[in-house]
Amino acid sequence: MTTAREIMTSGTECIGADESVLDAAKKMKDLGVGALPICGADNKLKGMLTDRDIVVKVLGAGKVPASVKAGELAQGEAVTIGADDDAEEILRTMTQHKVRRLPVIDGHDLVGMVAQADVARALPNPQVGDLVEALSTD
Q1: What angle do CA 52, 41, 67 make, to 5 degrees?
Q2: Which of 24, 27, 79, 133 sits a CA distance of 20 to 30 A from 48?
Q3: Chain centre to alpha carbon of residue 6
Q4: What is the pLDDT of residue 135?
């Protein structure tokens, strides 16, 4: 079975917990991504920041992106997947937590990111449909 390491996008960049949401938005634009892992000064994963978080929790709340720290938007422990976990486990984790992206961890190190599209390419068609349905319902 295909592992997270085989289907992930490597070279994932973090936004520092002490960096501003404005910096995160610029980094998302430059990298062409819709989400960034939030890493602390200890390089440990603190959470995920999505473009939707910026719109809803910062702009929609009338806050100034330059004055909000990325770490303020980290909510609880980030949902991750191990680099050697298989596509079935990725599917279960995404479905259970209703997330479209998973940081890939090897030991304590962030080594990449698996997106819904990566899993869709790795799974047989019926399972892809199940994943899309699970993530598209409230």
Answers
A1: 45
A2: 133
A3: 17
A4: 60
